[in-house]
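comment on this one:
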Amino acid sequence: MRKIVLFTLPAAIVLGCAQRVFTPAERALIMESDSLMYVTTMDVAADSVILRTPSVDLTAKELESEELKVLLDKMLYTVQHPTQDGVGIAAPQVGLNKRIVCVQRFDKADEPFECYLNAHIDSLGGEVAVGPEGCLSIPGKRGLVPRHTKVQIRYVAPGSSEERTEEVEGFTAVIFQHEIDHLDGVLYTDRADSVFVAPR
């Protein structure tokens, strides 16, 4: 009879792997970039790999890190900058495959930009409507995309470790679908009924 020998790692090592922090390359991208971050585009081969790679949840240590606070500030600055002027941005669009989105909440007073960590869509509802979309990562083009009018999102708010759920409707629901698609490596052009050159 053959003997099977099992090796177990010390608990500290296992926990260390489970609770990783940003890699040196990720920290450098966050901390050394300008406030206006470089936006990845499908026109650049290396960028397209990032945009097509599914993103991972932030760990507990990453949720509490100073790097995350800096990243959120820079993502918000970037999406609202006149050279971008977007209504949402996802972490892969600034080079990080983390499940982070920043979205303009047109359904709230003053239409604030808010960030959502470990963002997922739990369910889609309402009617399906076709509407125009563009993307910071696909410059110069627009598309007509079918989207649900209601969405239930699951996320962690900045400064918290508690998971929350929220139902969102209307145009803001469309933005969440677009941005969370980015976290799964999906672009609006994958869902569009048609794509065309954007008028200048």
Notes: The CA atoms of residues 64 and 159 lie 7 Å apart. The two ends are 75 Å apart (CA to CA). Strands lie at 88-90, 100-104, 113-133, 141-156, 163-169, 194-197.
